[in-house]
Amino acid sequence: MATSTLLALFAAGLALTVVALVVALVLAHKHRPRGHIAGIVAFIAALLPTLVAAELVGARFDFAPEARRIHLALAWATAAFLLAPMASGVQHWRGRVSRGAHKRISQVFLVLVALTVGTGVWMLSTRIERPAAGGGPG
Ligand code: HEM
């Protein structure tokens, strides 16, 4: 696949993921729990192929080492922390955790998402395309 096509697919996947998350948050704020949960399912469904595209993009470029290190650490932390709002959301739905607790946990997750996207943009801004494998002499 051409690098420009891959970058466009990645950007589209990322945009869809962010839109699904924003819609899920707006529906939660309007007290529409079923719509909120459907939005979160759409968010996860869009996130998974976007992560695959991100991996493929990462394999085609070299990045500034600090930008890469900081972004990857945040990306792993955010992925691991996703379990917290999921678990507190399910527990809130079952009446075992307060809305306030689920909201506060979700806010920490949203800060991590913002930092991950921000450092990802920073990392991408430092990209240098790798030469095609097997193209050079010897
Ligand atoms: C990444 C995952 C999630 C995030 C970021 C998230 C975020 C939020 C936020 C911020 C609120 C409060 C909205 C406000 O007061 O303005 C909320 C409410 C709620 N969330 Fe989640 N949530 C997530 C996952 C889930 C899951 C998996 C469930 C249940 C299966 C769930 C169920 C609920 C319910 C029932 C409410 C209350 C809605 C109402 O007031 O009627 N959430 N969520």
Distance between the termini: 25 Å
Report the biggest beta sheet as strand number plus sense, adding barrel if it closes: 2 strands, antiparallel
Counted up, domains total: 2
Q: What integer value in Å does the Rg equal?
A: 18 Å
Could you tell me the strand content as a percent range?
Answer: under 5%
Mean pLDDT, all residues: 95
Look at the helices and sheets and give the structural class: mainly alpha
Helical content stands at: over 70%
**How many separate helices?**
5
Ligands bound here? Answer: protoporphyrin IX containing FE
Q: What spatial order of strands do you see in the largest sheet?
A: 1-2
**Helices and strands, in N-to-C order?**
HHEHHHE
Task: Provide a descriptive summary of the structure in words.
The protein starts with a helix and ends in a 9-residue tail after the last strand. The model has no long low-confidence stretch (mean pLDDT 95). The longest helix has 28 residues. It is 80% helix and 3% strand. Helix 1 packs antiparallel against helix 2 and helix 3 runs antiparallel to helix 5. The protein binds protoporphyrin IX containing FE. The site of protoporphyrin IX containing FE has 20 residues, from helix 1, helix 2, helix 4 and helix 5.
